[in-house]
Amino acid sequence: MNVFRSKDLKQRLALKHSWRNLLNWLKGFIFGDRNPLMGEVHDVSLNDLEVDMPSGINLQSSGSQTATLISEKIYVIGGSDEGIFSESVRIFHKSTGEWVVPIVLGTKHVISKAHSSVLLNKERILVLERDAPTDDSIWFLEVDTPYVKEQRKKLGKEVVAWSKGLRGDSPVPIVISGPSGVGKGTLISKLMKEFPSTFGFSVSHTTRSPRCNEKNGVHYHFTDRSIMEKDIRDGKFLESASVHGNLYGTSIEAVEAVTDAGKRCILDIDVQGVRSVRASSLEAIFIFICPPSFEELEKRLRDRGTETEEQIQKRLRNARAELEQGRSSNLFDHILVNDDLEMCYANLKSILGLDMENGEARQHCTKSIVLPKGHLVLEMDQKVLIHGGTTEQGKPSNILYVLDASSLKGGAPGRTKGLNIYAIDSVEGGMGLNNL
Ligand SMILES: Nc1ncnc2c1ncn2[C@@H]1O[C@H](COP(=O)(O)OP(=O)(O)OP(=O)(O)O)[C@@H](O)[C@H]1O
Ligand SMILES: Nc1nc2c(ncn2[C@@H]2O[C@H](COP(=O)(O)O)[C@@H](O)[C@H]2O)c(=O)[nH]1
């Protein structure tokens, strides 16, 4: 019997099991001989790993670390206080008997002492923090996702990446591209002005000098080339490109700042950047803006008066190639001609579903959960069961949380979205199911 295989999980659970039966059944999985997780190690002292440890290190005192076995590697999460193992992620290679400290990419994260971990799909470890603020408790350590594989190949070293788990689906970012002077900034400003609580702008980094009306941190993060190049090498950018002789890039932090504020992110990037974002884990809508004619594009660029003649010539040369790529490739989901500004803006709003009266309404669910202290976790068929521990009042918890990881989206270097969590709590004569 495997009640957690059904898509219609709630219904089958409700029909087949009383609360007590379910708990007993679960205990069999967690403590008894029905545990399907043979070979994985959860919430253990490193002594349990039965591997030869380097001498002189008191592993007993390393306390609440977790270890997860994936093929020949054991991923140990959580640093020790003893100094030697201060890194929060280390990998033990069973075949060579060596410890490796991987390059840790993705969202900056310091693992708390008290956490549980469970392997999902052999590509990411779900880490549940016990004493973290409620909406900061679900994290993924990606160990073999496409992003990690790509970075491992690029850097030639062992790589892991953190991504924060976000519940529910937030609306996908909007990527706007088009030649310089076509009116992208003008359209984005109109959108942000009309829908201030819906949209947020991804503030790019650039090595070009600020124009007289531009503010650092608002229009761009103006930066030195050497600093930006280092940050790119360190994996802090979702994409970057050399555009009209300067370096431009979207940092992971810029996108996350907007999504964390509960807003829909807008990116204004060139066609090279669009290719990189398309190839990344960021799901987005891609819109290309065209001028009504090349002459009109030149006129707009000149009238703007922000570039020298030499820069205008360079931007116009690049515009020809960009227009060709934008129109002919399959890079874009929508192409808009910005002839009459108001008409183009109306079309943009229509694409974004904002032409209806209450277009500003979509916000993602923010209701939070409190994971019980001392909980147990196990994974079955992409459903993670979190059970036990104590309530905030110190009483034994009767709540079983089910975290459905079957529809995860995104992931490092950004957020992992699409988590669905519901609680099954004990009620007289059966169970109650609550979506959170
Ligand atoms: N539909 C339009 N008709 C006439 N002028 C327009 C229209 N749209 C924008 N403009 C003007 O064209 C100029 C360039 O617009 P904008 O700065 O928004 O372009 P952009 O695509 O963001 O350029 P860049 O990529 O260089 O930042 C601005 O002076 C703006 O006021
Ligand atoms: N690939 C990226 N391109 C970007 C980014 N930010 C802006 N841009 C593009 O650069 C040109 C020139 O912009 P300007 O402000 O100097 O006129 C324009 O096409 C922008 O779309 C970025 O982060 N990445």
From TrEMBL:
Residues 171-353 form the Guanylate kinase-like domain. Keywords: ATP-binding, Kinase, Nucleotide-binding, Transferase. It is an enzyme of class 2 (transferase). Signal peptide: none annotated. CDD domains: GMPK. InterPro entries: Gal_Oxase/kelch_b-propeller, GK/Ca_channel_bsu, Guanylate_kin-like_dom, Guanylate_kinase, Guanylate_kinase_CS, Kelch_1, P-loop_NTPase. Its EC number is 2.7.4.8. SMART domains: GuKc. It comes from the Eukaryota. Belongs to the guanylate kinase family. This is Guanylate kinase 1. It comes from Amborella trichopoda.
